[in-house]
Amino acid sequence: MESTIPVKNKISHADHIKAEPFRKEPRKTVPHKHKQYFEIIYLTEGSGEHWIDGVKYPIRPGVLFFISHDQVHNWDLHSEPEGFVLIFKNSFVEKSLDRELEMLLQRFSGTTCLQISEQAGIRRMFGLLAEENGGTSDMSVHIKEGLVKALLAKILDDPHFESRRPAVRTDLFHAFTDLLRTGHQAKMKVSHYAALLHTTPQNLNAACRKAAGLSATAVVAEFIMNEARRQLRYTNKTVSEVSLSLNFTDASHFVKFFKRMTGQTPQAYRAAQ
């Protein structure tokens, strides 16, 4: 086991979006994160398991996976896969003049795996994105934006789609979660993040309750717990080292926090994995 979680990068520095057929090899990968990008994977053939943050998802034709850069995942494929991978950075959405693209994307927050019922249209859209992947004309970026927007809307329109979060999102909440996910050292004090976002703790708390049904403190605690679980499961860091990486002043405080949130100590959690 490594001391840190490996980070893989499948998109060049100059590119903001990439779409391609799903690679057939390797069929088994080590747990890893992505380098600051969001990934949507659509599989039309194949079998096996896909592990995301320690949760096993079976692979069946017509499955979609949504993976953010802070999540850890790995594959254990039993048969040859077919499908597509769509990768895009925050910069792709930020550079878009169409704000509906961001609004559609935000509705997938909390969604990791989705088995869809209608496949023909979604497969065509992924195929068109893959065909346009190498496009460099002035119009290519607009074509890609339109196709991504249509793809997201098509997925959202599927009867099997169930968002884990309310559809309402605010710019403040989005900025807050981005701040947590971009490697900013975690702190439990909401006032710390409010100051960075040039707002008040009250405004930040209201934005979190509107968007996620949680207080700002609960959002931070959820983020810290997810990262703690990843490090305990996928690295050989000691509990003290995990505690330090998450900005706890004392390992005993981290142990108490972890036990309060999960009902078990970090050591017990690691032993059960």
From TrEMBL:
PANTHER family per record? ARAC-FAMILY TRANSCRIPTIONAL REGULATOR, TRANSCRIPTIONAL REGULATORY PROTEIN
- Naturally occurring in which organism (per UniProt): Chitinophaga lutea
Single GO molecular-function term?
Answer: DNA-binding transcription factor activity
UniProt entry keywords in alphabetical sequence? DNA-binding, Transcription, Transcription regulation
Which SUPFAM superfamilies does this chain map to?
Answer: Homeodomain-like (SSF46689), RmlC-like cupins (SSF51182)
Task: State whether keyword DNA-binding applies.
Answer: yes
Is Transcription regulation among the key words of this record?
yes
Q: InterPro entries this protein is in?
A: AraC-bd, Homeodomain-like_sf, HTH_AraC, RmlC-like_jellyroll, RmlC_Cupin_sf, Tscrpt_reg_AraC-type_HTH
The protein here is known as: Helix-turn-helix domain-containing protein
Query: Where does the HTH araC/xylS-type domain lie?
Result: 174-272
Pfam families on file: AraC_binding, HTH_18
